[in-house]
């Protein structure tokens, strides 16, 4: 009986983790759409700017990069990913900015 309970609880935990991940990406995706980020970026492939997966890969492992990403999004940046600069995005709310940067620092899971 204990084994059945353990298997059942483990299954519920796995399902709830998947739901949380989906919900988090849904919130991030909503913020990306609302702030017009997807006009130049995609999750998996390069558009005008790098993919979010590329940005996440380049910034993983160094918590200081979170602040660099915040600044790049809000104030714009040029010359990092090619000749086309990223314009400033002052309209991005602090909540959306935190959500997007945390998602990138987590590896841009989707």
Automatic annotation (TrEMBL):
SUPFAM superfamilies (UniProt xref): Cytochrome c
Positions contributing to heme c binding: 37, 41, 86
Keyword terms: Electron transport, Heme, Iron, Metal-binding, Signal, Transport
Domain of life per record: Bacteria
Record PTM text: Binds 1 heme c group covalently per subunit.
Pfam families reported for this sequence: Cytochrome_CBB3 (PF13442)
Domain Cytochrome c residues, every copy: 16-108
Any GO MF annotation of the entry: heme binding
Signal peptide per UniProt: 1-21
Entry protein name: C-type cytochrome
Organism: Candidatus Paenalcaligenes intestinipullorum
Taxon lineage: Bacteria, Pseudomonadati, Pseudomonadota, Betaproteobacteria, Burkholderiales
